[in-house]
Amino acid sequence: MIKVMKYGAVPTSEIFARVVPTVNVEEIVAGILADVKENGDKALFAYCEKFDKVKLDALAVSEAEIDEAFAAVPAEFLDILREAAENIRRFHEKQKRNSFILNEQNGVVMGQKVIPVDRAGLYVPGGTAAYPSTVLMDAIPAKIAGVPEVVMVTPPGKDGKIPAVILAAAKIAGVDQIFKLGGAQAIAALAFGTESVPKVDKIVGPGNAFVAEAKKQVFGTVSIDMIAGPSEILILADGLSNPKYVAADLLSQAEHDKLASAVLVTNSEALAMGVTLEIEKQIPALERAEIARASIDNNGKIIVVPDFEKGIEITNELAPEHLELCVDNPFDYLDKIRHAGSIFMGRNCPEALGDYMAGPNHTLPTGGTAKFSSPLSVDDFVKKTQYTYFTREALAKVGHKVAYFAEKEGLTAHAKSAIVRLED
Q1: What is the pLDDT of residues 140-164, one digit of tens each?
Q2: Greater confidence, 127 or 324?
Q3: Of 225, 176, 254, nearest in space to 363 by CA
Q4: Is there a contact between 144 and 177 (Cβ–Cβ < 8 Å)?
Q5: By the 8 A CB rule, do 161 and 28 touch?
């Protein structure tokens, strides 16, 4: 049963406790990365056989396989995928940045170029569920950014195939290459490149502990989006909220993973009791009841606060991945929410809208990192290059200042590089 705690009656350490995975996979992942780096495709085929229980003839997904999968997906769901893709495009198009140039001073030109990375790698999880939504959320911003080549990896089933909905989503999103790879070995392939898999410049996408650790270890060889932890939701709700809705929304995240955390913060003891009862009523009806039960019992909590302002304070401290603001006038509180990955406003905006159809990205910072991190966006797929141009006359105006500054830092060669031009 979900824990109910009253603010002030329990230690704050319980209020702000986070789910911390205890599996230590550093050495295992380091070994896999080294193996793939040294042995390339040979290692990848071996890991597919070992972990995915399938012996593959080829790592790449063929055009014939993509076409076959596309034909197998019901037309109704293809229409939904296309509609979701269009919503995601519409939102992310607004994130595009422009290059700029400054030439206000005589003889001086400065500017910044915004340039997409050459190749982006997308990791799409498999295993207990298929996530075509992740394909759309990760690939579409990359394409809007102008990335020339988007490479996707996702684990195959025991039949050696990728779920048809994943391949359909990839085709709709414009993914360029797809490989049957999962786990740390997939991250290694993207980071180092192999005979089949091209090396990428940036790796994005969620995954299990092995994937997260692999991304952490290859950072520096390539860029990554974030180190994603277990999924989480925090619902900040007042006493007028419907306990049936709130319970359903908490369970929408609890069913993801036994380590997922679902938290309700409310100023209503009646709502807290109602949600507790509703959770117990709804769990048995879920297909993933066992997962949801473990998540709720081990990581779920309801925090009863004296007033809504205290609830906002706790919310900002927890900095949740998903935040539902369940009140009648959510925009009155929006400016007070400083730390959250994505905010769902009002009583008719379940977090699932953001997962699938609304348009804002669902790849979000977890574990409190929303205090300093942002959702996946077009910005993740571009880099910025600065440039500076001075004429001889423009340099003459500031050259001695540059030299003086450099000498104050003890860098006389820096100073000389400016002075020598003025003396010549």
Answers
A1: 999 999 999 999 999 999 999 999 9
A2: 324
A3: 225
A4: no
A5: no
- In whole angstroms, give the CA distance from residue 386 to residue 408: 25
The packing angle between helices 164-173 and 75-93, to 10°, is: 40
Share above pLDDT 90 across residues of the chain, in percent, rounded to a whole number: 92
Strands 342-345, 149-154: parallel, antiparallel or unpaired by DSSP? unpaired
The DSSP code sequence of 92-128 is: HHTT----EEE--STTEEEEEEEEE-SEEEEE---SS
CA distance 340 to 330: 14
**Residue 57: both structure tokens together:** 């003839």
Q: Which residue has the tokens 């989006």?
A: 225
- What contacts 171, CB < 8 A, 6 or more positions away? 66, 70
Known catalytic residues? 321-322
**Four-point Cα dihedral 28, 29, 33, 35, nearest 10:** 20
Count CB atoms within 10 A of the CB of residue 207: 26
Residues 6+ apart with CB under 8 A from 81: 73, 132, 136, 165, 168, 169, 172
